[in-house]
Amino acid sequence: MKSRYSIFSLARNALNYHKDWERAWRSPAPKAEYDAVIVGAGGHGLATAYYLAKNHKMTNIAILEKGWLGGGNTGRNTTIIRSNYLQDSSIAIYELARSLYEGLSQDLNYNVMFSPRGVLMLCQTEHELRAFKRTAHANRLAGLDCRMITAKEVKEIVPIINDDPNCRYPILGAYYQPRGGTGRHDAVAWGYARGADSLGVDVIQNCEVTNIMRDGGKVVGLETTRGVIKTKKVGVVTAGNVSPLMQTAGIRMPIESLCLQALVSEPIKPVIDCVVMANTVHGYISQSDKGELVIGGGTDPYNNYSQRGSFPSLEHTVTALVETFPIISRLRMLRLWGGIVDMTGDRSPIISKTDVEGLYVNCGWGTGGFKAIPGSGFVFADTMANDRPHPIAEPFGLNRFAEGRLIDESVAAAVAH
Amino acid sequence: MSNKPYRLLEGGSRIDRSKRVTISFDGRQLPAFAGDTVASAVMANGSKLFGRSFKYHRPRGVVGLGSEEMNALVGVGDGARHEPNLRATQVEVFDGLHAVSQNRWPSLTFDVGALNSRFSRFLPGGFYYKTFMWPQSFWKHVYEPLIRKAAGLGRAPEGRDPDTYEHIHVHCDVLVVGGGLAGLTAAKAACASGLKVMLADENPELGGIADLTAGSIDGACVGDHAKAVAGQLYAAENVHVLNRATVVGHWHHNYLMIFERVADHDPALLAAGTPRHRLWKVRAKQVILATGAIERPITFANNDRPGIMLATAASAMVERYGVSPGVNGIVFTNNDNAYLTALGLKKVGIGVRIVDSRARAEGSLIARAISEGIEVSMGSVVSAVEGSQGVTAARIAAYRRGQGRVITERKIDCDFIAMSGGFNPALHLWCHNAGKIKFDENLQSFRPDRHHDAMQAVGAANGTMDVAATLAEAHAAGVAAAKAANGKAKAVKYKVPEVKEPTRAPLESLWFAPATGKYNEGNKHFVDFQNDVTAADLELAQREGYESVEHTKRYTTFGMATDQGKTSNLNGLGVLAEATGKSIPEIGVTTFRPPYTPFSFGSIAGVLTKNLFLPIRRTPIHQWHLDSGATFEPIGQWRRAYTYTGAGETKHTSINREILSVRQKVGLLDASTLGKIEIKGPDAAEFLDRMYTNTFSTLKAGKCRYGLMMNELGFLTDDGVTVRLAEDHFLMHTTSGGADRIAAWLEEWLQTEWTQYRVFVTPVTEQWAQFAIAGPRARNVLAKLGADFDISHEAFPHMSFKEGKLGGYPVRVFRISFSGEQSYEVATPANMGRGLWNAILEAGQELGIEPYGTEALHVLRAEKGFIVIGDETDGTTTPIDVGLEGLISKKKADFIGKRSLEQSFLKAPNRKQLVGLLTEVPTDVLPDGAYAVRALKDKPPMEMTGQVTSSYHSPTLERSIAMALIENGRARMGETLTFPIDGNKVIRAKIVDPVFYDKEGARQNA
Amino acid sequence: MLLVHCPVCGAEGDETDFHGGGQAHVRRPATHDPVNVSDEAQRDYLFIRHNAKGLHFERWRCDRGCGKWFHAARDTVTMEFKAYYGITELPPRELMEQATGEWAGYFKDKLK
């Protein structure tokens, strides 16, 4: 068991010039065999490993990462956390995740800085207003704490917003989830890694899986850059790179890997205290604790594994936000980056068993995965441990594509994730 | 504050002593000269304190020379023109410039936030991950607000930016980035080919640091040589030189962006209407990077005190601005270059001594320094600095390479330190698009290796630090680029210049200059100045398992400040390498991301703000709508008249008036936005049979048919009436928002799947103005206008088409109805639209014609149970769901979406079906999107059974009506549903047929 | 910002002048046999994609130029275009030979 983090441990270590801090996680060599192996140490994978150990007492397990843990989309997203989706199955998993986020720092004994500062989704056309009103009715009956607010209330919450009623897309109101917000993305990965490690999980970095080994329709192990690892249960949680890996097990995925970009401004004193999403013009914005405006937009329209995007989509986003928040015109872009998002045909994720016994897959989170991490890990761990879909995971099975049972949020509510 | 004269009596190549200007800094008026920067002007006035650091709020001064500056950040300008976080070393002064320091309260010299510094021992890297967790609610309400207030550097401007920005798109053969000696030489070589060359440089003057470089070229000093070449390039017709223009990023296929600060340095330019910034979007066939190198600070105890600068920056203060960094200083170095700084300082009478960490070194600059009487301490380091808001003394200690702590120190009084830890090639642009780099032992830094794009690096950017080698390599690169850009480039005559330059001893890495104590025992050896990241923080991160350099970076925030690690990155890697016993390449580098330096969001938006932000499409009748009191609603890019509210009316009453006018008399609707696509060719009918769910090959010429379109998933995407104009010629109407999408959709299938069809698809939406004349008196209006075709019901029944003249205007008339009334849609060429509109109004006046808007239209269609794509459908709705199964052909073997309707979920029982709803209380109007529940409970969650898709007050029926998608709805006619509405209100409504009015269709067939 | 070349009209322009149309050579089963399309075949047609990391084959449209659809071979890691070819054509033989993974399987028959 690790020594706990607290204000007292901080003070105690300060007196000793911080010489006695333990490693947050070990750096073990892979063992020859595990009861289960998670491939991909991003947020979803780490959360899966943590809940497998914590909830299902599976501690002889490993999580393999080809690079550094949390280095994919977990460490490069805009950290928005909300659950106000339209479809029942989406609400279930994102609300599970959001509620787990509320107590995550205490559960992990690692401050993930979940900041329920409120998420505001602007209504800038009549159509959008209608769509959000529908979502609001559905969410209210589902028990979510969300509400429509007026343009005047929007202005009170976000004073820097352009409230000119004659602008191109005037603010007609907003859909507000006061208990949505942001978190510190790296800390989520690190907290889960430390938590899993302390329960005995081997977190193994710089170990790339090159082949999923099968024998008669069953998983028997993994070939990795650090040798063969035997196991009968494999959970693939490799985000943008899921298609090539699943192909080694003979499974073709309904996934395309696209580039999604985000950017931050130079830090400034606080000007915006919540998350604002403007879906009509494809932009969202919040302000980090360091003071940077964190801005995201839409995906580039073609396959891209380079983690480098194209400028036009971001240019569109920035232009829209300059129009929506005119003071940002004189602020400056500090850094711009891209990630590989795996998009499914209905833009909803896959949490599923597969036709190969012992092989499970959790992917397709597209542009909205960060907010789901705790819920995704929770239900995927349960699915793997019991070899049947957790009820919340069931709608997200791979079989939905043959049945036409799509979960399409974007067409239903005109909302990006 | 000091009364020492920091402005030297003479010298300063950049300033014009005949032009005096006054600026203010934190409200204090300061005299300066034209050509000064805010950094030089403030320092000339004896102040070294510019701002406070991010975390500990430590006092900070100027460190750098230009864009690499991380400490001296200032806010410039007032109100809506305020701009935060500018590097004082880059801000050129003008008379009346207002600058303020940042991140301090209440004042720069007395800052309450500096308390953090007192407690810094309790705030190691990543401390916030370990605390602030109790109680749970405190993060949001207590800890986070405090942290946010303390962080953040400058403040945002107030109000809308009054200035303008623009974009320029250009192609060029060769883009040279950086106008120092290397860039100038490369550009000149490329220029000689006659090709189109661009040279972009981030500074106000070309030359880079040629003026601070030792040696001579063909007998002239390096600076003069550079000046002469610059003159030739300015004069060359095929070279476009951009000053104050930073190449901020390199993207796929040699796409680069140049951020030009056009008018920041001169408000007169702004006043004259120039844009403030300009963003150049350049597609270059060849790119030559001559971005130079950035000097490394040295990591020693309290190396952040104001008065500690990079050696090159100290030289620049003297040479360029005639400003002395102090009266008595120390040059602390691990390489020969800083000796030039010492010599320059000595020359103008500033006291200086040299501390060199190398045990021994032999080079001509070192020999010269010694011969000029400068005291040189080899094998020594600065181990500590005294003073807080400035330097008062330094401690010097003997040092052997790799030594962890020093034993004995000497105290030396001084008021500034110029430091040089070597140079890092500026690799940013090389790496933006994944160029490969390699570690160079001589430089103790990374340099370019390979690149898959047409890009070369030359000079210091390539790790080439000698003048002669730079000239040779830059010239060769210019010639090679020109040749590659255009095989026919002219051969260039070139005489190898005669170069004299000092011999240099090799640099010896010094990643960490030790103090008497261990570095993790209280001393602050800053690696990242702005973010207050120390060597101890980096070491702690390693020890705690944040081993990947990306983890270290993110855990400690090193390299994440506004300079993005320009000066800190490699020093951090060096510290990590020493802490772990690994080599720097084994530690690895973090990813370089655009931009090279921050650039304004305003420049990214360019002119596309306010009225130009996304174009609006207007119909030919738009002005009339405006003049007639219309309010508008956006439909796609269009603006459509929503309702015409007259004097004494509300929107509600005007909408009701418009509806009743259509039902009782006649109304006129501008339907020009309706999508119109002509489809022509021998296979047009067969093609339409593929696209629509229903059949069009059986439609007779001159007749109209309503069609439904699905996507391949089996979901409705569009609907509209298509007319067969002739055997091989159709006119398709689409929804207003769908016109472009559907035209592209048809093209795609035609070109990629059914390539054998001989069909042309031509979108003609904007070619036609189109109006609906609807109501029991519609035909009378046509009669009054005068038609040259038979308008009788028998000759021109519902769902048929005529072409001819109406009131003298050439028209296509479709007898189709979305209101359920007798209705004619009249189309005329767009340029005649307004004339015909007026003629119709005039003809209809005595019949009581009134224009109606989109909201009246929507109520009219809802009364008739007609669906609107996007209201009754949401992208998961099939034709069967909305009760239009009859429009799905059973005979056609294949059409778009047919097969997907067979997927099990699309045939599942209990799918939501379109029904009508009548509320129990007729005055209750169900809210749009309200959900019915299976069973009412005291509180959520409640299971839902369907939702309202459209809901209106119907003035025709004098009660509310609604349409809804309800699970298995068509089998539940007569059942009463329960809708829990906000505020605990419950509305009950009965399921009915969705056609509320004139079920037989008698009115439209009248 | 990709630089795209239209093999039909010869225009060369930024990616914003073109429209990326997703994976090439996706077979629509109902066009060939409208009656016998299994749920799995329909799923594969609608959703399953090669998603190649490296050499990939795509459809593009010359949106602001001639309006024609065409095929392109592109590396999804370096983003380099390797070839452009007609919308009814197969890629150049050497690229079919270089193809890996799912694409290699697809082109195997075509190379005979």
Features:
heterotrimer; A: 417 residues; alpha/beta; eight-stranded mixed beta sheet; six-stranded mixed beta sheet; 24% strand; globular; B: 1006 residues; alpha+beta; Ubiquitin-like (UB roll); FAD/NAD(P)-binding domain; seven-stranded mixed beta sheet; 22% helix; elongated
Write structural notes for this entry.
The complex is a heterotrimer of chains A (417), B (1006) and C (112). Chain A is an alpha/beta fold and 417 residues long. In chain A, 30% of the residues lie in helices and 24% in strands. Chain A is built from 12 helices and 19 strands. Chain A is globular. Chain B is an alpha+beta fold and 1006 residues long. Among the domains of chain B are: 1-162, Roll (Ubiquitin-like (UB roll)), CATH 3.10.20.440; 167-293 and 425-500, FAD/NAD(P)-binding domain (3-Layer(bba) Sandwich), CATH 3.50.50.60; 307-421, FAD/NAD(P)-binding domain, CATH 3.50.50.60; 516-581, Arc Repressor Mutant, subunit A; 867-992, 2-Layer Sandwich (Gyrase A, domain 2). In chain B, the strands form 13 sheets. In chain B, strands 8, 9, 12, 13, 14, 15 and 28 form a 7-stranded mixed sheet that branches. In chain B, a hairpin with a 2-residue loop joins strand 38 and strand 39. In chain B, helix 12 (535-543) crosses helix 13. The longest helix of chain B has 19 residues, at 467-485. The N and C termini of chain B lie far apart (94 Å). Chain C has 112 residues and is of the alpha+beta class. Chain C has one domain: Folate-binding fold, CATH 3.30.2270. Helix content of chain C is 25%, strand content 28%. Chain C has 4 helices and 6 strands, in the order E-E-E-H-H-E-E-E-H-H. Chain C has helices spanning 29-32, 39-46, 93-98, 101-110, and strands at 3-5, 12-14, 19-23, 55-61, 69-75, 81-86. In chain C, the strands form 2 sheets. A 4-stranded antiparallel sheet of chain C has the order 3-4-5-6, with no helix packed on it. In chain C, strands 1-2 form a two-stranded antiparallel sheet. In chain C, a hairpin with a 6-residue loop joins strand 1 and strand 2 (12-14). The longest helix of chain C has 10 residues, at 101-110. Chain C is globular. At the A-B interface, helix 1, helix 5, helix 7, helix 9 and strand 17 of A face strand 6, helix 3, helix 12, helix 13 and strand 32 of B.
